[in-house]
Request: fold
Amino acid sequence: MTRNEQTIFRRYAHLYDRIYHWKDYAAEAAIVHSLLLNAGVQEGGCVVEAACGTGNYLEQLNAWYEVSGFDLNPATLEVAQSKLPQMEIFEADMANFDLDKPADAIVCLFSSIGYVSPGEKLRAVAESFYRNLNPGGVVLIDPWIEPAAAIDGHNGQHTYVSDDLKLCRAGIHRVDGRRSILEFQWLVTTEHGIEHFVDDHTLWMTTRDEMAEVFQSAGFEATWNQEGVVPGRGALIATRRR
Reply:
């Protein structure tokens, strides 16, 4: 058995898209497109995805924008680059990065902001986003759950089946103050046998008011879209003051 923090992002990145085969990236990207249009980001603009993972949103957003993306994990970036060989995809930390040219929008999707601890690190993210946007540029954040929505002991399971690969991932959510601790137990079956590993993730929960305050302090006008990209989560829309 292998047990590691965020194993899926590092050693098993090739399994990520399989276990999320059910996720409708096209529909969610269309919502992102609509939210950006409503916030004043025109089609053809420069849009950068922070924590782009394996590039599934970039594939879709490429239909409307000049897009690029970055992530901390080389293994997921390798998967993304294989899908999008002509696209600029690079390794960087969203709390400290510099683009070659300012963007019209920076998006952070699939609750990736939850991996950023509150306080100094989250403020550094807001400041980095501000620094890398054109005046009037927009940040769109698809957040992790708020503390009031957290359910200790919530559990679930996903599977994937093909001729040469069978996956089962069972997970449980533990709440420790503002921390969401996700433990995923994986079974991976191939012609070579069955492998078991545990994939641990720690995400941080912030309230909408807390998130908005951080971005407002960094120089944004921050509002919440009630529907958001994922139903019930809402989305932070922050516009850089000119």
Notes: Helices lie at 7-10, 16-19, 25-38, 56-61, 74-83, 120-131, 208-217. The two ends are 53 Å apart (CA to CA). The CA atoms of residues 41 and 104 lie 7 Å apart. The mean pLDDT is 96.
